[in-house]
Amino acid sequence: MVRRIEKDRSRFRQIVRKNIRKDLRKYITHTGMIGRKGKDLVSIPMPHIDLPRFKFGLKNTGGVGQGEGEPGTPIGPGQPEAGSGKAGDLPGQHVLEVDVNLEELAEILGEELELPNIQPKGKKNIVAQSDRYTGISVTGPKSLRHFKRTYREALKRQVIMGDYNRKDPVIIPIKEDERFRTWKTVLKPESNAVIFYMMDVSGSMGEEQKEIVRIEAFWIDLWLRSQYKGIEARYIIHDAEAREVDQHTFYHTRESGGTRISSAYELFHRIVQAEYDTSEWNIYGFHFSDGDNWGDMDNGACLRVLRGGLLRCCNLFCYGQVASAWGSGDFLRVLEDNLRGVENFVMSQIDSRDDILDSIKTFLGKGK
Q: pTM to 2 decimals?
């Protein structure tokens, strides 16, 4: 019975995993995912999953093809019109919410997007080994002998051979009955990493644009945390001025005003210089805007900060431009004309929520 339950549970998890991969784009664009995130789990809404089984009916209880009838006689009661009839006592169709481990969700994301593992830098890039018990084997050291499984095998053998006496239930395991725990060694990177998320919150960035940024930042953060054990996240919002905020403010702020992108890049660079040794830390920058910057003067200031040291500090610097009816979108063109071909600089254009998955693959596909 225990083995059957374990097999059913494993099969259920495989079905869940298959459904998540099939509809990953839909789940990624789901705003409620951020709100459902717990400490270690996230709830995934999906259609009810039924494992197939035979259902036996009752004989000679009437129905199609049984008994006499006249042409035109209704086979059964018709469906009532919507909104008519009395309250029923039958269950309806419900949506099942499945709790999925965040580590497993990151693994599914990486498999679906074919994301390479991160290649970290720095002297602190050590890898810790941990052993995880994963199954049962017929061989192994005595210290790992599984008591219950060994005696269960002995009981089965004695029952089959007719040696088991219910009145005198003596169970004596032999060597062939012994079962042992098995394990596999799991490598866990312990590199130090810091992620800077920067978001334009000016008046030209509408609520839909800001929501796209928050969703994408959530999934990027999920993947990077699966690659690093020691990780920090810093959040910067900007309009005409930039300031560092906490995670809650980043995900819920609703500000407006003009746009000066260089203010965010300058603040990012100052924090890195003051707090992070670039030879020891893996540094990531993700900036999202609608590209409506304050003129050529500030575009030039942004390029000076990027070329003047910010790009040399970062493993990867990513710029995502979110389409907006109010933004000019010129900043992406400026970056393309001046920074195309820089190895650790990546750009992505995000026209709608459907582009989030492709944008994440563009950003993280190099494994930097």
A: 0.62
